Q: What sequence folds into this?
C-alpha cells in the first residue's frame, strides 16, 4: 500500500460516516437477522412464499418469454440475477451505463447459456434524459422485433455508495438520483408497459437493511433531490445511502397501494428485496484496505454472502405468487420481514410521493421544452 493510499484510508477512518457504516449498519443487519429468527421460530403467522415460475397464458401467445428489465446488470447482484433469470428462460434486457461492460456481460451470458435471449441498453439512472431515451429505444425495439409491447418484470437494482457529493446535469445529488429518483422515474415511465402485460407483471425494488439506521426523516424536494447536501461542509454519505434506500422502500409500499386501487384485468405487483451483505463492487469508493477489512470481519461473523447466494431474496421476490405485493423479502428461502417502523409511516409516504411526483413532472416538462 502506498503512502497516498494509507493517508486516504486514515482520513477516511477519521470520518464519522465511516463509523456509522461500521457500527450502525452492522447493528441494523444483526437486528434484521434477529427479527427474522424470532419471526421464523416464534411468530404464529410467519409466512413463507413458494417460488412459482411465470406462466404464459394462451391469450399471450405472441409473448414467447417473459421480458425482464434489470438495471445495474453489469456487476454484482444485477449480473448474478441476469444469469439466473436468463437460465430460467426470461428474455433479459440488461440496462447499464457502460456500453463496454454491457457487451461483455451479454457475451458471457450467451457463452454460458446456449438459448439465452439477451438485449442490452445503455442508461444512466442519474439522468432523466437518459431514462427517457432508454424507454423510447426499448419501445422501438419491441416494435421492430415484433414483440408484444409490454414488460413482465422490472428489477430496480442499480445503486451506488458514493463517498463525495457529486452533482448531476439536473442539479441533483448523484447518489439520491441513482438510488431513488432514477428508479422512481423509470418505474413511472415503464408502468404503462407493465400494465399492458397479458400476465401479471411485477416491479422488484432492491433496497437494503441500512434503511433501519434512519431514525427520523424529513421529506422535501430538496432532501430527495439531495440538493440540501451541497450546503454541508462534509458529505454525510452513509446517511444519504440509508435515506435513499428508505425512500425506495416507502415508494415500493405506496406504489403497491396505488396500483391496487386501479382495476386492471392483469395486475402489477410491487415488491422490495433486501439481499443482506454481499461481496460486490458496491464499496468501490471506499479505500480498498478498509473494504477488505470490512469484508473480512463480516465473513468472520458469518454475515457475508457471494452474489450467487445474495440474489436469493431478489429471486424470491421475482417468483413469489402473482398476488404477492407490498412485502419485503429478506433472508432467502421465501422469507419476508417487517421493515423499519418509519417505512410504514403514512405521512412520510404521502410527502415522498408528492415530492417525487413533482420532480418527475418538472423533468417531463423540461424534456418537452428541449425537444
Ligand atoms: N452489496 C451489498 O451488500 C448490498 C446490500 C444491500 C443492498 N444492495 C443494493 O444492491 C444493488 C446492487 O448493488 P451491488 O452490490 O451489486 O453493487 P455493484 O456491484 O456496484 O453494482 C451496481 C450496479 O449499478 C450500476 N450503476 C451504478 N450507477 C448507475 C447509473 N447511474 N446508471 C445505471 N447503472 C448504474 C453499476 O454500473 P457500473 O458497473 O457501470 O458502475 C453496477 O452495474 C444496489 O442497489 C445496492 O444498493 C447491495
A:
Amino acid at each position: 500500500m502506498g503512502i497516498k493510499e494509507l493517508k486516504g484510508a486514515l482520513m477516511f477512518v477519521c470520518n464519522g460516516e465511516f463509523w456509522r457504516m461500521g457500527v450502525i449498519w452492522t447493528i441494523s443487519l444483526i437486528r434484521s437477522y434477529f427479527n427474522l429468527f424470532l419471526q421464523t421460530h416464534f411468530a404464529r403467522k410467519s409466512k413463507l412464499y413458494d417460488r412459482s415460475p411465470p406462466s404464459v397464458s394462451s391469450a399471450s401467445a405472441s409473448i414467447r418469454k417473459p421480458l425482464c428489465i434489470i438495471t445495474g446488470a453489469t456487476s454484482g447482484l444485477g449480473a448474478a440475477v441476469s444469469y439466473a433469470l436468463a437460465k430460467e428462460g426470461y428474455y433479459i434486457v440488461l440496462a447499464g451505463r457502460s456500453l463496454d461492460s454491457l457487451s461483455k456481460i451479454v457475451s458471457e451470458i450467451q457463452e454460458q447459456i446456449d438459448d439465452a435471449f439477451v438485449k442490452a441498453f445503455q442508461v444512466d439512472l442519474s439522468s432523466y434524459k437518459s431514462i427517457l431515451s432508454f424507454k423510447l429505444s426499448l419501445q422501438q425495439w419491441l416494435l421492430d422485433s415484433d414483440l408484444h409491447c409490454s414488460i413482465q418484470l422490472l428489477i430496480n437494482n442499480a445503486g451506488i455508495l458514493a463517498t463525495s457529493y457529486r452533482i448531476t446535469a439536473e442539479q441533483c445529488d448523484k447518489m439520491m438520483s441513482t438510488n431513488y429518483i432514477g428508479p422512481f422515474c423509470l418505474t413511472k415511465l415503464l408502468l404503462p408497459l407493465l400494465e399492458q402485460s397479458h400476465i401479471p407483471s411485477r416491479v422488484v425494488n432492491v433496497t437494503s437493511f441500512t434503511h433501519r439506521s434512519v431514525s427520523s426523516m424529513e421529506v422535501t424536494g430538496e432532501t430527495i433531490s439531495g440538493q440540501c447536501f451541497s450546503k454541508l461542509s462534509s458529505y454525510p454519505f452513509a446517511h444519504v445511502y440509508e435515506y435513499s434506500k428508505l425512500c425506495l422502500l416507502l415508494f415500493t409500499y405506496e406504489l403497491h397501494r396505488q396500483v391496487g386501487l386501479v382495476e386492471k384485468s392483469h395486475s402489477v405487483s410491487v415488491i422490495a428485496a433486501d439481499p443482506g451483505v454481499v461481496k460486490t463492487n458496491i464499496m468501490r469508493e471506499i479505500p480498498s484496505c478498509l473494504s477488505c477489512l470490512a469484508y473480512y470481519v463480516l465473513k468472520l461473523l458469518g454475515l457475508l454472502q457471494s452474489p450467487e447466494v445474495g440474489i436469493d431474496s431478489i429471486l424470491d421476490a421475482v417468483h413469489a405468487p402473482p398476488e404477492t405485493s407490498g412485502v419485503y423479502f429478506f433472508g432467502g428461502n421465501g422469507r419476508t420481514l417487517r421493515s423499519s417502523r418509519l417505512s410504514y409511516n403514512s405521512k412520510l409516504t404521502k410527502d415522498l410521493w408528492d415530492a417525487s411526483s413533482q420532480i418527475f413532472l418538472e423533468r417531463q416538462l423540461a424534456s418537452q421544452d428541449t425537444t
User: Anything to note?
Assistant: The beta strands are 67-71, 91-96, 117-122, 153-156, 201-206, 268-274, 277-278, 304-305, 328-330. The longest strand covers residues 268-274. The chain has a mean pLDDT of 93. DSSP finds twelve helices and nine strands in the chain.
